[in-house]
Every structure is written in structure tokens, then in C-alpha cells.
Design goal:
alpha/beta, Beta-Lactamase, Rossmann fold, six-stranded antiparallel β-sheet, globular
């Protein structure tokens, strides 16, 4: 038994997650890291921050030229359903930020990269710059980075099982923190060969020596954001990883690189831009991560058998990621265990339940199934089909309606809108009723179809 691991802990719960001595040591390490960030700030801005009752609440410090400096503090972020206003602001000084204040900070941090981000060596803090037209820094966002052990417990069974997992969520909800802990657990506790592709040095910190928060995982830095896809492929070809961890998949090239990696049998754990599966599916750049969608024309018999129109949307191919996780709050996620099955159900308009997991204060994980059509903690419907229709446009939520003579049904309108969002053009005319100017309005065919569409 290692030091600081008392006996009598529940099975399946890491002992360090419940050990007060371990937590005290971790909080001390976090405080030391925070002092390094505070040391880069001018004295009159630093002093109020050092007097905070709980420095652990500090999220970021915002410095804008000609405005008062302010701090953003967490406020109820672990409680689902509080919307996006989950932080509180506090003024740090009555004096406006000057160019000298900004220069003071810039001179004490690392160099800015092509994404206007810099850091402090061997810490997880991130400083992002706002520049004017001349390239001069006129604003800084100093974001506190913390390595939080135990966050992986909510997804441990999924990542340890070898399945590729994609994590979605709003900015600041904790995706990168979770990703860092996943890399550490897979490298240290599961003993897998883990490579972290760290585009902005946000996962493993600034400098050439990675932060201890990633454990024995190896880190590959990216020279410029637009070269991330190349580094992803290089990691597979040169270093024989069993797991690749990627933050912020955001371009078509990166999505293609992720598919290439998955096809080689390497486990992927990554994040992407978007809040929900519906957002991702309607994004033509990233929809390939979940299989993509394409319009398919059905024969008359098949359309009658399905009870739908002849042109439908179907999944284009197998998804790159097996599991999709929507982070609703720091301690609550919605898990789609089978992405292919969920996407197929969504496109058919069928219900697809999601598993909601919540991590409680004592470290246990509560699970429940969320029934489609019910209201979740955010007060929205959980029906994926309805959400997709809403994303596609303002169309009827029940597409199977009787079409007017020579007109399109609600289903066809929805499909046409979705196809335009995905492919830049509407559905092809397979029934001879879309182009009235060409004299192709076949009223008799429209009557005949209404018998089975209604």
C-alpha cells in the first residue's frame, strides 16, 4: 500500500479522491502554481487577489486598456441548470489599466504563439492577448489552469474500456481539465502508451517540460494551430501510441486526421467545438466525427414500408468516435454510449435515451436514463429529433402531414432545410413537384402520395 492511502474505502473509488491529507497536499501545490500567475500581475492588481477568501474560486483575470481590471470567480458552476452566467465578477482596482500594466505582464510570461496564447513554464495557466490593428497588445485574459484529480471517475469505465470518446461542452465547463486527467489515468493506472497532441500547451502547460498533471503520458507540441492535423498523424506514424488525446478538433483536416487514426486501431479521446450531438451533426465541418449525414432516395415500396417520404437523411458512414459525452456542468455529463445507434435514431425521428451521470460530493457517480420528450435540468426537451428539427429551421415538429396539391410536406421541408444546412443545396426533385416554373407540377402524383404520407 502506498503512502496516504487509508484502508476502508469503497470499492472502485480511488483512495486519493477521499484522503484529506492527499487533498491538502494537492491544494498546496495548486496554491503554489497560482502564486506564479499572480506574480506576473502589477502589484496594485495582485494585492486584492491575494486577499480573496478562497483563491480556488478564481477563474481568470481580465485586463483591458482604459478599463478597470476585474476578476471572474466561480459561482455555482457545479449546479446544473444555471445557464451561462455561472461566474461572478469583482473589480480589482479603481484605476484604469494602462499600457505599462500590460507590458508588465507580457514581460513576465512566455512568448505568444500564432493563436495569441502564452503561458508560464511548467504551469497550466494561460494568458491570451487581444491586439489592435498595429499588433500591439490592448487586452489580456489571464486564465487559471488547475489539474484536478478525480474528475475522470465520471467516465472511467468508458475510457478504460478502450472506446474512443468525444467530449463536447461550452467554454469553461472543464473539458480540458477532464482530458488532462484522462491522459494521466490511462498512462499511469492503465499503463498504456499515451500521446497528448497539445496545440496551445493548455493540456500539459507551457515550456518543454510537461506539467506533472499528465503523469507518464507524453506530450507533442504543435508549432502552429493550422498544423495540428499533421502532428496528429505524425504521432501515430512515429511513436506507436495506444491512445491519442486531442483538444479542440475544429477543422475538416483535423476531423479527417482523427478518422485516419481511428481506422488504425488507436483509441481517441478528444474534444470538439459544440455543446450537443445535434450541434455537431448539423456542422458540415465536423459531422464526420459522428458519421455525417447524406440524403438518400428510397424506392416506392421502401418509402411505403417506412411510412415516410422518398428522400430521407441517413448516416453517411461509421462514426470516428464510439461514445459522445456532453458536459452539462463540471460534475454532470450526458453520455451517448453508441453514437451510430443514436444518430440513426435521431435521423429517423425515433426516441434515443441518454445516460445522465452526476458526481456527488462524496465522489460517487449517480446514473439515470433521460427519457426523450421529457424536460431536463435546463428546461429543454430531450428529444434529439425535435432538437435537430429546431436546428434545421422553423419547421413543424411532426413531419408526417398531408401535403397540399403540388406542395411539399412538413417532412420534406425539414429534410430540405437540413440538406441546405449540410450540403449547401436543397433536396433533388424526385417527385416532379418542386419546379413549378418548368411545368413539372404533377398534381395527380401529389394526390397519390398523400394517401400514404398522411
Amino acid at each position: 500500500m502506498t503512502q496516504n492511502q487509508p484502508t476502508g474505502h469503497p470499492a472502485g473509488v480511488p483512495t486519493h479522491s477521499l484522503d484529506p491529507e492527499w487533498h491538502a497536499a494537492y491544494e498546496q501545490a495548486s496554491a503554489d502554481d497560482l502564486d506564479l500567475l499572480l506574480g506576473t500581475l502589477p502589484p496594485h492588481i495582485r494585492a486584492p487577489l491575494q486577499q480573496l477568501e478562497s483563491e480556488g474560486d478564481l477563474l481568470e483575470v481580465v485586463l483591458d486598456l482604459g478599463r478597470r481590471p476585474e476578476a471572474r470567480l466561480s459561482g455555482g458552476d457545479s449546479t446544473p441548470g444555471q445557464g451561462h452566467g455561472r461566474y461572478r465578477e469583482a473589480a480589482l482596482s479603481d484605476e484604469e489599466v494602462t499600457a505599462q500594466d500590460l507590458d508588465y505582464v507580457v514581460s513576465r510570461i512566455g512568448a505568444f504563439g500564432g493563436d495569441n496564447r502564452a503561458g508560464i513554464p511548467r504551469t497550466l495557466h494561460r494568458i491570451s492577448a487581444i491586439r489592435n490593428r498595429r499588433g500591439e497588445v490592448v487586452g489580456l485574459t489571464c486564465r487559471v489552469g488547475r489539474s484536478v484529480a478525480g474528475t475522470v471517475e465520471i467516465l472511467r469505465d468508458l475510457v478504460e474500456g478502450g472506446r474512443s470518446v468525444l467530449i463536447l461542452g461550452r467554454p469553461g465547463v472543464g473539458k480540458t481539465t477532464l482530458l488532462r486527467e484522462v491522459g494521466r489515468v490511462l498512462a499511469d493506472e492503465v499503463a498504456k502508451r499515451v500521446i497528448i497532441v497539445d496545440t496551445s500547451n493548455e493540456i500539459a502547460g507551457d515550456g518543454d517540460i510537461p506539467h506533472p498533471g499528465i503523469g507518464r503520458a507524453r506530450r507533442m507540441q504543435v508549432p502552429a494551430p493550422e498544423r495540428q492535423h499533421g502532428v496528429m498523424i505524425e504521432a501515430v506514424e512515429n511513436h506507436m501510441p495506444e491512445v491519442i488525446v486531442i483538444d479542440e478538433i475544429g477543422t475538416e483536416l483535423e476531423a479527417a486526421a482523427a478518422r485516419t487514426i481511428a481506422e488504425r486501431g488507436v483509441q481517441l479521446v478528444g474534444t470538439a467545438h459544440g455543446n450537443t450531438l445535434e450541434n455537431l451533426l448539423m456542422n458540415p465541418t465536423l459531422s464526420d466525427l459522428v458519421g455525417g449525414i447524406q440524403p438518400v432516395t428510397l424506392g416506392d415500396e421502401e418509402a411505403r414500408r417506412r411510412g415516410t417520404q422518398k428522400t430521407v437523411l441517413e448516416r453517411k458512414g461509421p462514426p470516428t468516435f464510439d461514445v459522445l459525452v456532453e458536459m452539462r456542468a463540471r460534475q454532470q455529463v450526458a453520455v451517448h454510449r453508441d453514437v451510430a445507434e443514436t444518430v440513426d435514431a435521431l435521423l429517423r425521428g425515433a426516441p434515443a435515451a441518454v445516460e445522465v451521470r452526476t458526481r456527488t460530493d462524496d465522489g460517487t457517480v449517480e446514473r439515470k436514463l433521460e427519457v426523450p420528450g421529457a424536460m431536463d435540468a435546463l428546461g429543454r426537451t430531450t428529444s434529439l429529433a425535435n432538437d435537430l428539427r429546431d436546428a434545421a429551421g422553423d419547421v413543424p415538429s411532426r413531419p408526417r402531414v398531408r401535403p397540399e396539391r403540388g406542395g411539399a410536406s412538413g417532412a420534406e421541408a425539414w429534410l430540405d432545410s437540413a440538406a441546405r444546412a449540410q450540403f449547401g443545396h436543397g433536396l433533388p426533385d424526385h417527385r416532379g413537384r418542386r419546379d413549378r416554373r418548368g411545368g413539372r407540377d404533377d398534381v395527380r402524383r401529389g394526390r397519390r402520395e398523400s394517401a400514404w404520407v398522411a
